[in-house]
Amino acid sequence: MSRLPHLADGPYAPPVPARELTVTAADGARIHVEVHGPEGAPAVVLAHGWCCSTAFWAAQIRELAADHRVIAYDQRGHGRSPVNPAYGTEPLADDLEAVLDATLAPGERAVIAGHSMGGMTLMAAAGRPAVREHAAAVLLCSTGSARLVASATVLPMRAGRVRTWLTRRILGSRAPLGPVTPLARRILKYGTMGPGSGPDMVEACARIVHACPSRVRHGWSQVLDLLDLDHGVRELRMPVEIVVGTADRLTPPVQARALAAALPDCVGLTELPGLGHMTPVEAPDLVSGKIRALAATYIPSARGERAVPVEESA
Question: What is the DSSP string of the chain?
Fold first, then answer.
């Protein structure tokens, strides 16, 4: 059994950041931020999902930080960001806006990648000035904008009121997850990962998820249950690419297809056969490659060009 919050070695062990800082959001929430890679390099911002932490992006940070400045932060109550009583999509947007303002220079553009609740954070913040100023392009991994509980296929039964009711009870449970045991790994793999996920992937995700406090897991489950960010999708006016696993039980491909249809500028939808909800862990090279390609295409400094100030490009 293990209570360590993350792996200590291997591709899913979190790299040591070049620097760390604490950002204060609009309501006073303190957000832990890590910065990896060389100063002045093209910027990438990573927003993790429900019950996760910056450790979730270990493989992407390790690959991209060689020639990108990678900024990762812990959502409030997750990882090293203290628990805060404010739950909701507006606080998530506040936190992202505070991180962007604190880590990017005026007019600096970045690729912002969000997984699951991190993608929802982007939808909630889509109309915020900091996102409009700094987001050159967006990658949405395994996420959705509304009707999450009704569309989830965690339970192998016909869609309808009964499945939705039972799914709500499971995802919103207040029960502590306890240590990472063989049974806990099997349950987590079934619910969040594809059948072909390797033991190292399952172990990495299990340690991260089990480290999330039960009251935080429950509090954010209520937000996800009532989520309605369809309006935010339409405000994501920058180029957006989507990645989803065909075996995703939490945000199945129907969610990704709805996003692709609603986005003003969807530049790609990739459905990964047999993969589950944890795509950045299950397909690390592909997700890192998508982020790298978006940076090379949409960030002038990644192509060696002069960055055009936002007011000039309007």
Answer: -B--SS-SSSTTSPPPPSEEEEEE-TTS-EEEEEEES-TTSPEEEEE--TT--GGGGHHHHHHHTTTSEEEEEPPTTSTTSPP-S--SHHHHHHHHHHHHHHHS-TT--EEEEEETHHHHHHHHTTTSHHHHHHEEEEEEES--SB-HHHH--SSSS-SSHHHHHHHHHHHT------SB-HHHHHHHHHHHS-TT--HHHHHHHHHHHHTS-HHHHHHHHHHHHT-B-HHHHHH--S-EEEEEETT-SSS-HHHHHHHHHH-TTEEEEEEETT--S-HHHHSHHHHHHHHHHHHHHH-GGGGTPPPPPHHHH-
